[in-house]
């Protein structure tokens, strides 16, 4: 299940030292691979299973996912999910990541 896999990668990601760029990049690559494997499953996860904290952390790769998949439904789903976030600061950060993802879609 995607939620278990993502949580495992995020757990490793959050344990990294802030300056471990190679480790961070590796985790991001794993997240991108997991979240682009089956877009219907990813959208379902984001809309129904993803808590705010997890959503905040995976937003780091939204731009890459949009670039790789060109999936408009994904971007619509993350926009809807962002509207439900409780923490204003996290929501604003995620909204910035979503704008970058939107730039990756065809006009």
Q: Estimate the mean pLDDT confidence.
A: 96
Specify the number of helices. 7
Q: What structural class results from the helix and strand content?
A: mainly alpha
Q: Give the helix level as a range of percent.
A: over 70%
Assembly status: single chain
- Major sheet: size, sense and barrel closure? none
Low-confidence stretches: none
H/E series: HHHHHHH
Verbal overview:
- This protein has 107 residues and is an all-alpha fold.
- The chain has one domain.
- It is 79% helix and 0% strand.
- It is built from seven helices and no strands.
- Helix 4 runs parallel beside helix 7, helix 5 packs parallel to helix 7 and helix 6 runs antiparallel to helix 7.
- The termini are far apart.
- The model has no long low-confidence stretch (mean pLDDT 96).
Pick out its properties:
107 residues; 7 helices; globular
What is this entry, summarized?
The protein has helices spanning 2-15, 21-37, 39-48, 52-58, 62-69, 72-83, 88-103. The protein has 107 residues and is mostly helical. It has one domain.
Secondary structure layout plus pairing:
Layout: H1 2-15, H2 21-37, H3 39-48, H4 52-58, H5 62-69, H6 72-83, H7 88-103
């Amino acid at each position: 299940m995607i939620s278990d896999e993502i949580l495992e990668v995020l757990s490793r990601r959050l344990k990294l030292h802030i300056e471990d760029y190679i480790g961070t990049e590796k985790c991001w690559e794993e997240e991108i691979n997991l979240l682009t494997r089956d877009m219907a499953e990813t959208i379902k996860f984001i809309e129904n299973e993803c808590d705010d904290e997890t959503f905040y952390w995976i937003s780091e790769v939204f731009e890459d996912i949009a670039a790789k998949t060109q999936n408009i439904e994904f971007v619509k789903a993350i926009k809807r999910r962002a509207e439900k976030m409780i923490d204003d600061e996290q929501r604003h950060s995620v909204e910035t990541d979503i704008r970058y993802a939107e730039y990756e879609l065809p006009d």
